[in-house]
Every structure is written in structure tokens, then in C-alpha cells.
Amino acid sequence: MPSVPNTADDDSPRSEPVLAAAERAAAVARPSPFRLVRGIVRTMRPHQWVKNVFVLAPVVFAKDLFVWNLLLRAGGAFLVFCFLAAAVYTINDVVDAPADRVHPLKRYRPIASGVVPIPMAKVLAVGFFLVAMGGALFEPPLFALVGLLYFIQNLAYSFKLKKIAYADVACIALGFVLRVVAGGLATGIQVSAYLLACTLLLALFLGFGKRSHELNAVALSISKKQRAALEAYTAEALGRALVITGGASIAAYILYTLDPDTRQMFHSDWLWLTAVNPVLGMLRFLHLVRTRPKAESPTQEMLRDTPFMVNLLVWVIVVVVIVYELRPAIGH
User: Fold this and answer.
1) Which helix (H) or strand (E) holds 169?
2) What is the pLDDT of residues 221-279, one digit of tens each?
3) Predicted TM-score (pTM) of this structure
4) What b/e string do you get for 118-135 counting C-beta neighbours within 10 Å, with b at 16 or more?
5) Contact 277, 308 (CB under 8 A)
6) What span, in angstroms and rounded, lies between the C-alpha atoms of 48 and 66?
7) What CATH number does the domain located at 33-191 have?
8) How many CB atoms lie within 10 A of CB 294?
């Protein structure tokens, strides 16, 4: 009977990769406090919190950006949605952990890789939610209701709707609309139909862009087709959806800038010129979708893209200059 090699005492070069893999597995199983804290922060996705600036949109376009009490209330609403988003991202990563482990990029997420254990992640999700809703109690009651609706809607997305084509993108877009509505409720500012329409259409555009990016990654064999909803999408259908939603977004924005009430409020006939920047931003986003298939997310990639961010900064500056006429009101 042949003898079984004693791998524990084997000093051959072939044993080194096995030992190295074992050491890495042990390090993940018992992460250092620093790695654990870093993993928790990464799970909260602070880089994605930029989406919550939509909460501030009503204050900006109501010419109240420099009314400090309103800005503080809007800032509080922003923080509430950041913690709600952290709870949602944590729950989503717990649900997606099995699929993420076989993804070339997402397998390095803290929960999928084991840096943040799933039982701890569940406790963190509850904690983030309680902090968010506790903060929402300092805002008007309807704000807390919208925040809760946002959380429930995202749970529905994580567990069911993200598996249904087009309903998944619509759910994401609804989340942006709820942010704007919440910002209006927190500050007592009436949100215009134009702002809601532009937000909805832009969010749909970004959502379809993300699905197109994922479809490109699958076509290039960069990742496996994990998302169930992706099976129902085609490159042609997503191309049409991007053209329709992108064009409609720009049209809604231009109509807003040309509306007589808008021109009277801002004392300017030139706000429509700022439509150039959204057009350039959308074209740059589509370029990133098509040319960077290895990125985890095109929306995340655009925040790292210098041309996109410069264009966004120029748009913000020009809008503030026009809207506030270079003479911001410090208060009423």
C-alpha cells in the first residue's frame, strides 16, 4: 500500500502556496481591528453618499442656499439618508454575498470576503437604520415617513425587484425622487414638478447606463451574468432607453430654464445655457460605460473621472452665479 506523504513536514516548494493560502484565509477569518473598521466603513459606501446631495436640490433651486437654518435642516436630512443608505448597502451585501464571492471584483467586498462577518453585518444594518430614523425624528413627521418609505423600497429592491428587468431601474430612480421630496419636506420648500421630472429621468438614464455597463462586461467575459434581471436586457433595448431618457432629461431641464416663472424668479434669461454641461456630462458618462467595462460601476467610475468632475464643477458654479446673481442672500 503506497504511503501518504506527510504534507505537514513537507518543505518542498509546492507546499508554499498552500501555506500562503492558509495564512490569508486565517487573516480574513480573524481580521485585525483596523481591517475590521476599514471593512465596516467600506460596507457603508461613503463614496456613494454623493447621491444624497439630491436632498439639497430644493434648497439650491429655491434660492435659499445661504439661508443657514434651512441649510442646517437640509444637512440633517442628508445625514439621515446617508445612514439609511449605509443600512441598505449592508443588507444588500449580505443578500448578495454568495454571488459576490464568484465575481472578479465584488468578491473583495468586506462581507463577501469575510472581513466583516455576516452576523456582525446584520447588527450593523439594524444600527444604521436606528440611527437614521432617530435623526429623522428631529425633522417634520412626513420626512420620517418618506425616509421609511425609501428604506422599505430599497429592501424590496434587494430581495425582489432587482431581479426584474426595468422594474429594477425604476426602483433606483424612485429612490432619487424620494430624496428630493424628503429635502423639500425637511426644509418646508415646495418641490417643483420640473425638479421631480428631471430627477426621475436622469436617474433612469444612469440606471440604464449601469445595466449597459454590466451587459458589456458579460459580453467581454469580464464577469459572469449574475444579475437575474440582466437576462432580459439587450444592448439594443438599453441603447434606445439611454437615448430616450437622456434626451427627455435635457428637454425637461431646458423647459424648466425657459419657463416664465423660472426666468422671473432668477431674474435671468440665460439659465438655459447651462444645459450644455448636462449634455457633456451625459456624453462622458456613456463614454465611461462603453470604454471601462472592468470598472465595478460606471457611476462610481465617473466620480473618479477628471473630465466629468471638472464639467460638473463648472455647471455648479455657473448655476449658482446665475441663480444667486452673485449676491447671495444671507437670510430673510
Assistant:
1) helix 167-187
2) 655 555 677 888 888 999 999 999 999 999 999 999 999 988 888 888 888 989 999 99
3) 0.80
4) eeebeebbeebbebbbeb
5) no
6) 25
7) 1.10.357.140
8) 13
